[in-house]
Amino acid sequence: MAEADRMSDAALRTLAVAYRPLAPGENSGAGESLEHALIFCRTIGMADPPRPEAAAAIGEAQRASVRFMMITGDHPHTAARIAAQLGIARPGTAALTGVQLDAMDAAAFAAAVQNTSVYARVAPAHKLRIVEALQADGNVVAMTGDGVNDAPALKTADIGVAMGITGTEVTKEAARMILADDNFATIVEVWRSRCCRTEPAPTQEMLMERSTTVALLYPGDRAMRDRADPRESRFVTLFDAFESAGITAEPAVYHDDFADEVAAQLRRVDGVLVWHNPIESGRRRDRLDTMLKEVAQRGVFVSSHPDAVLRLGTKDVLLDVRELPFGSDTVRVDSLDQLAAQLPGRLRAGARVLKQHRGCSGVGVWRVEAIRDSVQLRVRHAQRGSEEEVIGMPGLLQRMTPYFETTNGGHTIDQAWQPRLVEGMVRAYLIGDRVGGFGHQAVNALYPGQDGKSAPPAGPRLYYPADLPQFQYLRRMLETQWVELLRQRVGLPREHLPLLWDCDFMFGEPTPEEPERYVLCEINVSSVSPFPPSAVGPVVSAMAEALKDAGRR
Is 294 in contact with 547 (CB distance < 8 Å)? Predict the structure, then answer.
């Protein structure tokens, strides 16, 4: 052992040589079963020095505040000596081993990663934990590797770099970049040329980028995530379309219970398309929104940024646009007392629709109509399966109470009822500021009963391409005026327009100046599904263009 330590201190990799004479009848091909009672011969030291240009490249990047770490399976003394030669650690600095890391709790592990730059005798799980700890501390992490055991860490790192000559196919598939010449200095040369812009970038033969990867995020349980089969997903047509476009698409099944696992997945992709309702199975999406903001800050393109969802995807947008051409009589109600005092006056002019601040699937949307010569109200909830009720103001206030809780927005929106709702509702599907298709639902959740009969159940929404003749006026207005007016009114930067979103419109009362009139009912940003088949191609093209603009393709 002393000889092995001496060689390791000299930055040599060590190999112990031993033998054993075979007994008569022993099978020389028996493999590991023969490896017992061996006679030690000696220890061999093998030099595998770093390239001369590596130390200079590391020093240049360190002067620009880039931190380097060595994570290896070598002997701790060998690792420490080579790290000192490269300038990664000071001479005499000890390496942390996998055994020592295993003995640490989470806090000690995080502290060790902050202060230690050399790790030896580590397993693949240690490499992955080190990368994740660095990311959790707010670092952007690049990881190099060549072996199969490097793949998990390369896949999780913000930039995984595989060796092009000695790297395995598994490692290359997991990486974002492939270093074709296996020269570490090339990485720094690329960094210098792209960040500092002092000289031309290296040729493509030296550094090759792997295929662009996007994640399709949607809610599910542990079993769904473990299976994660695109063939079983409701987005199978999108997976196929991305593949045809040369973009790797992978499922990112999400639940708060394994949010950290999903976060690690999103950090290594180029973009993420998100389908997750504001409230999913009784849970708000606060944790998801925090995660999406974090990965967006790291440069991952997010199809619907949480800030855009808040500006467009709540019922407050109806208040913001009430004076625009597609707006209507809309009031904000901040308390139950205000509702009780003011609603009767508005009901004298016609029915109203009360909407909670944020929701989906008709939950928290109520049609309220006064009954002539009565203090009673005709009330119907838009949630599927709800029946019309006749109740007094106290009953209405009781039903509205939850929507005034702080966690639910603390207020509601009161919008004038549109009588032409009986003609159906039009949904315009938008990809950025372009219409990708339409949906038309002839009978929706608040369709009123006729001639004393109960209201019919909501019917299906039928999907049409963007060039459907009957909605060309709506398309033209959206693409030439209304999207821009909306964006300016809510203060949303043009580059933050959602990649896929939709606007629900009711038919408004026509005027001589506007024979075709549409009134905005709501905007869906957080989970736009299903959508017309005609939107699939434009979604893929828009994602590819967004990644190109962000420098990730």
Answer: no
- Supply the pTM of this predicted model: 0.66
What are the residues facing 177 on neighbouring strands?
A: 161, 209
DSSP string, 169-219: HHHHHH-SEEETT--HHHHHHHHIIIII--SPPPPTTTEEEPPPEEEEEEE
CA distances from 535 to 432, 438, 530, 531, 543 (A): 12, 9, 10, 7, 12
The two structure tokens encoding residue 538: 């434009």
Q: Which long-range contacts (C-beta less than 8 Å, at least 24 apart) are formed by 94-97?
A: 94/118, 95/70, 95/119, 95/120, 96/120, 97/121, 97/122
Give the C-alpha separation, 235 to 420, whole Å: 34
Peptide bond into 448 cis (omega under 30): no
From residue 371, give the alpha-carbon distance in Å to each of 378, 438, 481: 7, 36, 40
When pLDDT is cut at 50, 70 and 90, the band that residue 194 belongs to is low
d(CA 472, CA 468): 7
**Tens of pLDDT, residues 262-299:** 998 998 889 999 999 887 887 888 999 999 999 999 88
State how far the Cα of 251 lies from the Cα of 218, in Å rounded to an integer: 8
Q: Are strands 142-145 and 159-163 parallel, antiparallel or unpaired?
A: parallel
Give the DSSP letter of residue 508.
P
Half-sphere exposure (Cβ direction) of 29: Cα atoms closer than 13 Å: 0
At 323, is the secondary structure helix, strand, or coil?
Answer: coil
Burial class (CB in 10 A: 0-12, 13-18, 19+), 116: middle
pLDDT of residue 388: 87
pLDDT in tens, 472-497: 999 999 999 999 999 999 999 988 89
Structure tokens at 302: 């997010």
CB 516 within 8 A of CB 510: yes
Q: How high is the mean pLDDT of the chain? A: 87
Q: Work out the number of other CB atoms within 10 angstroms of the CB of residue 450.
A: 10
Look at residue 159 and tell me whether its pLDDT is greater than 90: no
- Amino acid 141 reads V
Query: Do residues 553 and 214 lie in contact, with contact meaning Cβ atoms separated by under 8 Å?
Result: no
The H-or-E segment that residue 544 falls in is helix 536-549
Domains along the chain?
2-47 (no CATH), 213-304+545-549 (3.40.50), 329-417 (3.90.70.20), 420-525 (3.30.470)
Tokens in use for 516? 């075709």
**Residue 218 main-chain phi, psi, to 5 deg:** -150, 155
Amino acid at 337: D
DSSP count for the chain of H helices, then E strands: 20, 26
